[in-house]
Amino acid sequence: MLVPSVGLILAGGEGTRLRPLTYKTPKPLIELAGRPLIDYPIMELARQGVKRIVVSVGYRADDIIGYLGGAGGRLGVEIECLRESRALGTGGAIKFALGRLGRNDFVTANSDTIFKFDLHGMYRVHVRTGAAVTIATVHAEDVTGSGVVEVNGDSVTSFVEKPDPSRYRGGLINAGVYIVSGGVRDMMPNAEKFSFERDFLQEAAAKGQVSAYPIDTFYTVNDMEQYTRVSAMLGGTAAPGYGTDHSYGHTSHKSEPRENP
What we know:
Layout: E1 6-11, E2 31-32, E3 35-36, H1 39-47, E4 52-57, H2 61-68, H3 72-75, E5 78-83, H4 89-101, E6 106-110, E7 113-116, H5 119-129, E8 133-140, E9 148-152, E10 155-160, E11 171-180, H6 196-206, E12 210-214, E13 217-220, H7 224-234
Parallel strand pairs: 1-4, 1-6, 4-5, 8-12
Antiparallel strand pairs: 2-3, 6-11, 7-13, 8-11, 9-10
Helix pairs in contact: 4-6
């Protein structure tokens, strides 16, 4: 089965929780283990067969555009940048990008994540279930600040935003990697700025339109604590499973809680 040929990476946020690193450098260009952070999701999507990636940029957009302008050949994929005139939220950014993505299915991820997944397997679930959105989920021992994804088989039944620690001592969290059906525009809120997670996925799951696909490897670099922890874990070398030639070795099966943007 073919996979979506087009990807979208959300890279428009200010990265306020990563200050002081982001005062002069946009979050996607912060160096992590010898690479700009945004290289990691681009490399993984390219490895999975995605041929073209649209990157939605906002804060310090010129810096990101300048870097990515010459990075496509090195990273093995065609890259196009789409400039947001103002902050749109995750949902608004996806909706804004739909004009460049066409009506076909696409895969989207955040620029502050390192992950490894099977796009072919995830897309099989997406097609088989007829979902509007299929989300990548990862098991975390600590779900504090992340929310919990409740599932029944492949179907997402609900999202628990503030899980009770006495009930949820671990669980599935949203990794922020999605396969989105091309016709999703007609289902989105009639707003320019909104959260994809809170303002769209919650309602879509209640209607049985969201599927889940588990992945094992996921790290997020969303604040200074996570940056310090992931940097120490990587030890100044290429990230687990990532080499400069896109080769993959042993992968550490750990996850960091994914926080809402």
